[in-house]
Amino acid sequence: MTHSTLSAERQAASGILAPDRQVAGGSALLLFLIFLTVISGLICLYVWQAHEISVIRAETREMLTAADALERANVGLMLEYAGWVSPAYIEMQSNRMGLVTGHEAIRVSLPAPVEPRLPSGRGSDTFLGAWLPGMAPAGFQHR
Q1: With contact defined as beta carbons under 8 Å apart, do 119 and 134 qualify?
Q2: If you ran DSSP here, which 8-state letter would residue 120 be given?
Q3: 136 with 129: CB under 8 angstroms?
Q4: Is 117 in contact with 127 (CB distance < 8 Å)?
Q5: How many CA atoms lie within 13 A of 69 on its CB side?
Q6: Contact at 8 Å (CB) between 70 and 63?
Q7: Cα three-residue angle 44-47-48, rounded to 5 degrees
Q8: Cβ atoms of 140 and 127 closer than 8 Å
Q9: Is 7 helix (H, G, I), strand (E, B) or coil?
Q10: Alpha helices, DSSP H, located in the chain
Q11: Mind listing the pLDDT tens digit for each residue in 89-120?
């Protein structure tokens, strides 16, 4: 080996010579790291989406179960209501409570209203004296 060959090997090892080879090796490593980063990001995205889909499916199952339970409860309430509004049930309850049964409507008539007025032929003193004997005005004679 000659001196120039040794010097060229040292320069190549230190990165002075063959820059195109070093850039190509460095860029290949850089491309590989970018590729790994993109692939790992896509894998993380896939795992996250799969998890979210499973959570949504579980929530959907829970909601469907709750909806079925509510529908069953609603049917039960409708049957109970139908029993309450049936004429047989109403008649049975009215008999149990001792209410009048029959087809005639009960009518309540109120007497005509009476207006308060003073007794005829007497003044207001007489009226007040009749109500308040101890407070009768002077000159009042109680009969």
Answers
A1: no
A2: T
A3: yes
A4: no
A5: 6
A6: no
A7: 85
A8: no
A9: helix
A10: 3-14, 19-84, 87-97, 124-131
A11: 888 888 888 776 666 676 778 888 777 765 55
